[in-house]
Amino acid sequence: MDADVVIAGAGPTGLMLACELRLAGADVLVVERLEERTGESRAGGMHSRTLEVLDQRGILDRFLKIGDPQPVGHFSGLYLEFDETESRYPYPLMILQSDIERLLEEWAVELGVRIQWSAEVSGVRQDESGVTVELGTRAVRARYLVGCDGGRSAVRKLASVDFPGTPATMTALIGDVELPELREDYVWVRRSATGDYSAIAFEPGWYRVITSEYDRVAGRDEPVTFEQLRESLIRLAGTDFGMRAPRWISRFSDAARQAACYRTGRVLLAGDAAHIHFPAGGQGLNMGVQDAVNLGWKLGAVVTGRAPESLLDTYHSERHPVGERVLHNTRAQSALARPGAQTDALRDVFGSLMEIDEVNRRLRGMLTALTVRYEVGSDHPLAGRRVPDEDLTTDAGDVSVHQLLHAARPLLLDLRAAAAASGGDEVAAVAGGWAGRVDLVRATSAEDFWMVPELDEVPAPAVLLVRPDGHVAWAAAADEPLDVPALRTALATWFGPAPRD
């Protein structure tokens, strides 16, 4: 084998997945068809849950140093308020994809990830023991292949995975340019008879211009030019504001498609290779990174022999519904952005509803992904949700939950001293069967109640089993007897049977 896992695509999804696999002990090779980084800015930010997963790995400070926290977000251009009680990072972070890729690549290299440029996937053959990935005139062999190679994924096509969905109904152009005649700091979703435009300042002297024109659908392979962007802005704004010096021009639409399956044998899909949609609310890059964090620890456990191959089936069962929900809300945002008097009225009504706290909370949860909950076989309020980053006290000192996840290992957190419960040795006895695989930490919580988006406050648990991706696999309430068989079942389900079983 040339690697345990070959990843096609060195974008944010592929790089994050590579890092997660290395933390799990897997040998990883990333192959990228491009010759080098293009420097194109592309996506422009990260939401709360993505910031949290970077914090779980101890690398968030690298991104915060160059990113710009924003006080508000938006749903189809309508301002959305955030709640500082829901996360340590209750804001979108404005940071360009080019910077995100640079920082993730630096981390990947630190972890020993191999990256091969000018390596385009041209063939895929899988068998019982592995997969052969053809790269032009040569081939590499791995146990698994993950396609993180974008919306036109070669891996998805070569694996014959269907990509159903809805076609484009509009065309949007995006470019990083200078606008010397713009007399405003920024323009936010200014609507016209045929679409809308925005001009957002990313750095002094240059802007990201976005034009959206409905019922104008560009050909899939039609070239994108600076002149097209200039003419589109003139149609919508009546002027091009002296547009000049383009750094990057691209096009997108409201086409929405999702892979019918995220796994077919030894081939898996993540990021844009698994789902494309209207980039409303900036959810695409975030969903891809979160795909990677969900898949990484599972695939790493399988290739290193710590878990059965069946664990990989939970990647599709957990992430495919998340993708469906994002496609659903972005279709809604695209419809809400259409020009016309009827939509103008709808936006007025919808905007007034967004002033209601519960409506704001529901929409906020969609965009931030803080309310994603997986089915894990437990009815505890925390089960399946991302674990709140609470402050804890251990014998070694004060620590946060996220700090305990830096190594990307399963965490069994015993908080029963805080719940005034007895029988502490039971948890240690159970954990002994998974010694070396699961980290047992005894601690007390600084708070008796933990804040959970959608639920507000819930009582602090007595025992908590947390997956490496930060989602709770199982939890025990402080006012109930410890269900030892249920804890054993959860450990075996997610982290493989105990060696002596």
UniProtKB/TrEMBL annotation:
InterPro entries: FAD-bd (IPR002938), FAD/NAD-bd_sf (IPR036188), RIFMO-like (IPR050641). GO terms for molecular function: monooxygenase activity. SUPFAM superfamilies: FAD/NAD(P)-binding domain (SSF51905). Residues 2-329 form the FAD-binding domain. Its cofactor is FAD. Keywords: FAD, Flavoprotein, Monooxygenase, Oxidoreductase. PANTHER family: BINDING MONOOXYGENASE, PUTATIVE (JCVI)-RELATED, TRK SYSTEM POTASSIUM UPTAKE PROTEIN. This is FAD-dependent monooxygenase.
